[in-house]
Structure formats: C-alpha cells, structure tokens
Design a protein that fits this description.
The chain is mainly alpha-helical and 216 residues long. It contains 10 helices and no strands. The protein has 2 domains: 65 residues, Arc Repressor Mutant, subunit A (Orthogonal Bundle); 131 residues, Orthogonal Bundle (Tetracycline Repressor, domain 2), CATH 1.10.357.10. Helix 4 packs parallel to helix 7, helix 5 crosses helix 10 and helix 9 runs antiparallel to helix 10.
C-alpha cells in the first residue's frame, strides 16, 4: 500500500483529539531516542498516558504512527503557509524565512538523533527509510519546489529545472554546519555563524537563479 494512503482513523471528540495529540507528542519524543525497532507501542502509550488500545484506535500500527509523527514534526516547523508566495515582497527575505525554518528543523536534537539512527541501520529497513523520506524530506521539497515555480511563473526567477534547484537550495542550507552537528561536534554553533551561513546561501542561490535585467 502506498505510504501516502496510510491514514489513521480520525476521531472527532475533543477528548479523542487531546489523546491523539498526546500520542503524537510521545511518538515524536521516543522515536528519535530509540529508533523504530527500539520504541514499542507500550512505551508510547505509557509516555502519552493512555492505553495501548487507545494508541491503536488512533493509529492502526507502528509504521502509521512513525509516519504521522515525522509528518507532524515537519508541519510544526515548516507549515504550508511558509511557502506562500508574496510576488510583491522581497524574494531574499522569503527565501531566508524558508532557509531558517529548514535549518532549525534539520539541526534540532531529535532530528539529528533520528538521522543517525536511520544511517546506522542503512540497508536494514528500506521501508522505514522510505516512510521517513515521504513523511518529511519529500513534503518539504515539494512545498519549496512549488514556491520556486510560482516565482518562475511571475518572472522573478530564471530556473529551467525547478526540482533540481529546490534540492540544491536545501543542500546549501544544510551545508557544513549540519554535517558538523550530525557528527556530534561539541563546539557550539553560534547564531551569528548560522545567520551568515544562511545569508550567504541565499545570495549564492539568487546569483545563480535570480532574474537578470539585460542592459539597455
């Protein structure tokens, strides 16, 4: 079954919604610590303060819960509104807002921990990696690609291959700082360093793809 069709049942009572939110919060905390195999539904239920039966009533299995937890984490940090296009507003500022949210998402301690766990199990569970990619990175990439497409259509960007450009931008934003944090570098990354990195990446991207005005 396609991962995009994996859907939990949707309870509608406020109490049910509170329990669902508590389960998702517990899953977001526990999966990065123990990984997929090391996190049981019993542990998630205990962390959420609900019964295991309640967990299964909201999310039919652990794969569905893992998928929804990753999706919820991305939506919190990078909501769809982040990719709304203001064709009259300054493009560098819009790109910086996306870049800052993305950098904060991928460098959060829970994101780094989950990344390490997935890399450590590389090849052991292709399905798990696909679940992660579809729930998180692919959603962010699709949202940013559509953002670029809209600016292309109004003539603000000159990009022939928007999917590739979207990948390039997000890779630029990760940069060496993300690699350093992923490796567990103990030297703190200062906010000034992050700000300079993001500004430089946005400037580089716009030099490559910004619409150029031909001289008269």
């Amino acid at each position: 079954m396609p991962f995009s069709s994996v859907k939990p049942c949707g309870p509608g009572r406020p109490k049910d919604l509170e329990k669902r939110a508590a389960i998702l919060c517990a899953a977001k905390r526990l999966f990065p610590r123990g990984g997929f195999e090391g996190t049981s539904m019993d542990a998630i239920a205990a962390e959420a303060g609900v019964s295991k039966l309640t967990v299964y009533s909201h999310f039919k299995d652990k794969e569905t819960l893992f998928f929804r937890a990753i999706r919820a984490r991305c939506e919190e940090q990078m909501p769809e509104t982040l990719f709304d296009v203001d064709v009259a507003g300054p493009l560098p500022e819009q790109l910086e807002a996306i870049a800052r949210a993305f950098f904060a998402l991928v460098t959060a301690p829970d994101a780094l921990a989950l990344h390490r766990l997935l890399v450590a199990r590389s090849g052991a569970s292709d399905r798990l990696v696909e679940l992660f990619l579809e729930a998180g990175p692919e959603v962010v990439l699709a949202g940013f690609e559509e953002f670029l497409q809209r600016h292309i259509r109004v003539g603000r960007l000159d990009i022939a291959d928007a999917p590739r450009a979207a990948q390039q931008f997000l890779s630029l934003i990760k940069g060496e700082l993300h690699a350093r944090l992923l490796c567990g570098c103990t030297r703190p990354v200062q906010q000034e360093e992050i700000d300079a990195h993001i500004r430089a990446a946005v400037e580089f991207f716009l030099r490559a793809y910004g619409k150029r005005t031909l001289p008269a």
